[in-house]
């Protein structure tokens, strides 16, 4: 049902007329997120600036039984912020203040619209470190990072967003405001409610403030790239590095298709006569970093690396790291539609999973570039296609089913960092099982009985 003039007037009274978009041309940029081939027009878009405004919007939405979809920068890759027909899109990008940086407690309090990069830069300016680094960190917002429990290249050593959330302010679906967590390193009083909202994809509440944990900035870092004639050699090298009790901050891989696309795009000087490339970074105390880098270089060479290139300075390190960070952009240039997928398996099964994806590409006659986080078993098979080609899109859908079934069979998961949203909700029951699905539904119904927040995401 289209939003009435009376409701639009009420929303203008809450946030101000300048913060309400209703014209179709203005709504189009908010009708999709970073997920390929998904688009749906909302009824209106609201830009909020305070927690009180969000509370009032949700009270109105409950009274009128309206759908509300929260949105940051719209970089999500599972349709988590895809609008519902005629819904209210509640956009928090203008809530972009860093409210406090507490050096004594190593915390930062921020609003949900602050970008991940601005948080990282503010930490560095205080000689501190915020480790989570999703690929979209230059534009993704912390509210979205928390809602999706975003990962990143440094996840192997430092973990994901959840590991750095100490507290948050949340507006519940019926408009109540709740604070969760605190600055205490230890706190076991009651359920860990903040963890319930991390990764909830905007279905349980709207995050309006986040208290983040910071850590001391590493004093040194060494970056290297190793190339291999076979993906199995690269996987074996990763296993050997972990077995040597070395946990690099970054341990990434690119396959042949991705290497060629990156080199064509970024002109980094990557060798093109290899099947796999590892980007390896170690950080910490200078002495330890030097020892670990030497050990890892020796392991790479022992296990048949074609070449090991160690960055001589920070400039070269950034250049080498860009080989992985530009992977998606490089692949996106090849075809009109780029579908970046996300599946995770135990590290020991990664080589088998990569071979399976290669087989699926041949079976369904698809072009797939694969890259990802080899250190933690998270791979991103990226389909290069054209969404206007309905027959090929059908083959891609069949390929998805086989890839996720195989990930589950190998003891993995259907998503390591992108979330469920719309794109993967059909796979969730098989992964979680009936009992978990039932508990999740009951929990969601208890918090949002009128099904106001982000309906249709995760499950129907």
How would you characterize the overall build of this protein?
The structure is a single chain. With 460 residues, this protein is an alpha+beta fold. It has 16 helices and 19 strands. It has helices spanning 5-15, 24-27, 51-64, 116-125, 142-148, 155-158, 193-197, 231-243, 256-266, 286-302, 314-325, 327-332, 350-363, 390-409, 428-432, 434-447, and strands at residues 20-21, 44-47, 68-71, 88-91, 98-102, 107-110, 128-129, 165-171, 177-181, 206-213, 215-216, 220-228, 250-255, 276-284, 307-310, 337-340, 343-344, 367-373, 378-385. The strands form 4 sheets. Strands 12, 13, 14, 15, 16, 17, 18 and 19 form an 8-stranded antiparallel β-sheet that branches. It starts with a helix and ends in a 13-residue tail after the last helix.
């Amino acid at each position: 049902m289209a939003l009435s003039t009376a409701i639009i007037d009420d929303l203008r009274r809450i946030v101000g007329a300048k913060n309400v978009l209703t014209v179709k041309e203005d709504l189009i940029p908010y009708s999709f997120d970073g997920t390929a081939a998904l688009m749906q027009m909302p009824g209106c878009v609201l830009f909020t600036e305070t927690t009180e405004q969000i509370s009032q919007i949700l009270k109105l939405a409950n009274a009128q039984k309206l759908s509300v979809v929260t949105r940051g920068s719209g970089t999500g890759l599972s349709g988590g912020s895809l609008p519902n027909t005629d819904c209210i899109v509640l956009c928090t990008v203008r809530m972009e203040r860093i409210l406090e940086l507490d050096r004594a407690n190593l915390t930062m309090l921020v609003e949900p619209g602050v970008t991940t990069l601005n948080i990282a830069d503010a930490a560095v300016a205080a000689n501190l470190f915020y480790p989570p680094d999703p690929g979209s960190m230059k534009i993704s917002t912390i509210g979205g990072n928390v809602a999706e429990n975003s990962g990143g290249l440094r996840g192997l050593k430092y973990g994901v967003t959840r590991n750095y959330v100490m507290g948050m302010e949340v507006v519940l679906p019926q408009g109540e405001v709740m604070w969760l967590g605190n600055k205490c390193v230890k706190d076991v009083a009651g359920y860990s409610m903040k963890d319930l909202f991390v990764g909830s994809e905007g279905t349980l509440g709207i995050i309006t403030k986040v208290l983040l944990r910071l850590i001391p900035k590493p004093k040194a870092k060494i970056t290297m790239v190793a190339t291999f004639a076979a993906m199995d050699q690269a996987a074996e090298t990763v296993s050997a590095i972990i077995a040597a009790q070395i946990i690099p901050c970054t341990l990434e891989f690119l396959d042949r298709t991705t290497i060629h696309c990156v080199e064509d795009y970024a002109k980094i000087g990557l060798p093109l006569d290899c099947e796999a490339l590892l980007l390896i970074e170690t950080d910490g105390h200078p002495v330890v970093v030097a020892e670990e880098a030497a050990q890892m270089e020796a392991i790479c060479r022992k296990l048949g690396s074609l070449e090991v290139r160690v960055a001589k300075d920070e400039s070269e390190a950034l250049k080498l790291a860009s080989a992985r960070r530009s992977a998606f952009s490089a692949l996106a240039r090849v075809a009109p539609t780029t579908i970046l997928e996300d599946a995770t398996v135990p590290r020991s099964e990664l080589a088998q999973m990569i071979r399976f994806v290669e087989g699926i590409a041949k079976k369904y006659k698809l072009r797939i570039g694969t890259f990802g986080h080899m250190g933690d078993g998270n791979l991103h098979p990226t389909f290069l296609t054209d969404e206007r080609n309905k027959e090929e899109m059908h083959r891609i859908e069949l390929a998805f089913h086989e890839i996720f079934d195989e990930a589950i069979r190998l003891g993995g998961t259907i998503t390591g960092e992108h979330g469920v949203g719309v794109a993967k909700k059909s796979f969730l029951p098989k992964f979680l099982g009936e009992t978990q699905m039932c508990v999740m539904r009951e929990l969601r119904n208890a918090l949002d009985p009128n099904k106001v927040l982000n309906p249709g995401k995760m499950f129907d």
